[in-house]
Amino acid sequence: MNHRRLCSAALAALGLIYAGALRAQADSTAYPAKPVRMIIPLQTSTARALAMPALIKRLDARGLQAHGSTSSNFDRYLKQEMIRWAGVVKSVDIRGD
User: How far from 92 is each of 25, 46, 53, 87, 88, CA to CA, in Å?
Assistant: First the structure.
């Protein structure tokens, strides 16, 4: 796979991961869960792409930081963030209407 296609595939994979994160946060049925056999290769490919200097440079030029993780680490991060911000959300009565 050439470099441009790999960068495009990595960005598409990031979009899928972001969509999955939104699903995890909102508990929406819009993005159904994927089997582990599909997730592991996607995570591996994404981590490999995120380590590519050319992709890091392109993301950096757009003000983005490349960071890869596993779904279990990301799940743990989301749970920590929900706990972290729960008090703020309640204190100012933020609602997701």
Answer: 20, 37, 42, 9, 6
**Tokens for 19?**
């969509």
Q: Half-sphere exposure of residue 5, counting CA atoms within 13 Å on the CB side?
A: 2
Domain ranges of the chain: 3-70
Dist. CA 14–CA 49, nearest whole Å: 10
Angstrom distances, CA of residue 97 to CA of 63, 67, 93, 94: 30, 31, 12, 9
Q: What's the predicted TM-score (pTM) here?
A: 0.45
Distances in Å between the alpha carbon of 12 and those of 31, 49, 60, 97? 15, 11, 17, 29
H helices present in 27-97, as ranges: 36-50, 53-61, 71-91
Which residue in this structure is represented by tokens 């960068």? 7
Q: What pLDDT digit, counting tens, does each position of 42-81 carry?
A: 888 888 888 889 988 988 899 888 777 777 788 888 889 8
